[in-house]
Specification:
single chain; alpha/beta; seven-stranded parallel β-sheet; 45% helix; binds uridine-5'-diphosphate
Length: 483
């Protein structure tokens, strides 16, 4: 009876992102595309993220245009003032497991979206790190689609971990980080130890993050589908490896630009969890074309005072004009009375502009931007690719080390600065990107941007994959997990 009601009711997707800026950004875009295509969507945020969105954006009033959309929230269980930066991600996951997951489970079983409710969930889209979703989807008999918001090339290095352990390649023997990796199919010949996610540098197989990755590796193949924010032409060799692991795969990116092609008119709304300082757009309007280097390390990464000084001197000594996002909390270990050296503050006044959070997509698309010094988060990388802007990669963690290698060595879209930020190297790389090899990099970036845009236009691969995904959800052509 319950199942009958669920199968007779309209398709209703519950989307549950990892409560961090990057995943929330792209899952909201997917949610909007689903609404445009007639699906009911319930978007489950943690209360903390939801409040940040309410404080910094007009997201709630914006989504009122879609009667089939609603937000729901659950607490993440962390104290209000917890910083929720990269170092806190484990605490966040543990706390969600204890507090948020039981509430989520109740919501979709006996609660307002359970099988015997008025609006039963017919499909769950959850972040790939949420292993608990497998059992819950099984319990209510609906398909589970994992949305992997890290890059497929990064995810593939997670999925290769059992093979790396079995072959004795991991944990690394000795300290040579330049040794090539052999047991990551599709990455032979260019992936070095230092290009694997930084957590692979542990010698301890029982390291909690290694155990977390192995757990994710066991759960991913149990889903009915894997959604990727990428496009076929960018990562074809890795996507063909992914196809071997079982579930249907849906490469539908770059999502931020895909949404724009699906919207008949106008742009979408911001989903920033900090207030965007739009004054930088007016400043950019006054700068010459391709003259400004944009500098940002995303929403989670941090740097210490020494790194800050190296990057800052590198920037200033390169003579480039720069727009720099110094996110609150992103610089650790600064004494309160820290005084900015005179030469830095003078040069920054002359050639720099600093904001605490920028409308990044719009900044990258601005004609004045000529390059991006980035921590190589996957959203930032895709936003840069779409905007045709070459990158200097200074990866911090998770998939970012892999992304930096792909940018530098495979896609030839910039330079991978990895594992150093010495001021002389920073200066040299900026000069290369913004001066000596500028034309070459811009030409290459322009080419890949065109390929990215074609993939999300009618008839393109990502466009077709997204249509297929929506059809599969509507027609329920997935087999559901068996209990
Ligand atoms: N972002 C932004 N303004 C900023 C810096 C970042 O809007 O000043 C956005 C950026 O556009 C991207 C997201 O924050 O969509 C960061 O995600 P990413 O995957 O690049 O890195 P993470 O923050 O997860 O490390």
């Amino acid at each position: 009876m319950e199942n009958e009601r669920a199968s007779a009711s309209p398709p209703h997707v519950l989307i549950f992102p990892l409560p961090l800026q990057g995943p929330v950004n792209c899952m909201l875009k997917l949610a909007e595309i689903f609404c445009l295509n007639g699906l009911q969507v319930t978007f489950l945020n943690t209360q903390y993220i939801h409040e940040c969105l309410l404080n910094c954006t007009n997201i709630e009033s914006y989504f009122q245009r879609y009667p089939s959309f609603r937000f729901e929230t659950v607490p993440d269980g962390l104290p209000e003032d917890s910083p929720r930066t990269a170092h806190e991600v484990f605490n966040l996951l543990d706390s969600m497991e204890a507090v948020s997951v039981p509430l989520f489970q109740e919501m979709v079983t006996s609660g307002p979206y359970g099988p015997s409710s008025e609006k039963p969930i017919t499909c769950i889209v959850a972040d790939g790190i949420f292993c608990f979703a497998v059992d819950i989807a099984k319990k209510i008999g609906v398909p589970l689609l994992y949305f992997e918001t890290v890059s497929p090339c990064g995810l593939w290095t997670y999925l290769c971990l059992p093979k790396l352990i079995e072959s004795g390649e991991f944990p690394f023997k000795g300290d040579d980080l330049d040794e090539l990796i052999v047991n990551a199919p599709g990455m032979e010949g260019f992936l070095r130890r230092r290009d694997l996610p930084s957590f692979y540098r542990t010698k301890n197989l029982n390291d909690p993050i290694i155990q977390l990755v192995l757990n994710e590796d066991r759960h991913l193949p149990l889903a009915q589908g894997l959604i990727f924010n990428t496009f076929e032409d960018l990562e074809a060799p890795i996507l063909s490896q992914m196809r071997k692991i079982g579930p249907k795969i849906y490469p539908i990116g770059p999502l931020h630009t895909h949404l724009k092609t699906r919207l008949a008119t106008g742009g979408t709304t911001s989903s920033s969890i900090w207030k965007e300082d739009r004054s930088c757009i007016h400043w950019l309007n006054m700068q010459p074309i391709n003259s400004v280097l944009f500098v940002s390390i995303g929403s989670l990464a941090v740097m210490n005072k020494d790194q800050l000084m190296e990057i800052w001197y590198g920037l200033v000594n390169s003579g480039t004009t720069f727009l720099w996002v110094k996110r609150p909390g992103s610089i650790v270990g600064l004494e309160r009375e820290f005084e900015i050296p005179m030469d830095l503050s003078r040069a920054t006044k002359e050639r720099g502009y600093i904001v605490s959070w920028a409308p990044q997509e719009e900044v990258l698309a601005h004609p004045a931007i000529g390059g991006f010094l980035t921590h190589s988060g996957w959203n930032s990388t895709l936003e840069s690719i779409v905007a045709g802007k070459p990158m200097i990669c200074w990866p911090y963690f998770v998939d970012q080390q892999v992304n930096g290698r792909y940018v530098g060595e495979v896609w030839k879209l910039g330079l991978d600065m990895k594992d150093t930020c010495d001021r002389v190297i920073v200066e040299g790389m900026i000069r290369e990107l913004m001066e000596s090899k500028k034309a070459e990099f811009l030409q290459r970036a322009d080419h890949i941007a065109n390929v990215a845009n074609a993939s999300v236009s009618k008839g393109g691969c990502s466009y077709k994959n997204l249509d297929r995904l929506i059809e599969d959800i509507k027609l329920r052509t997935f087999s559901t997990l068996q209990g």
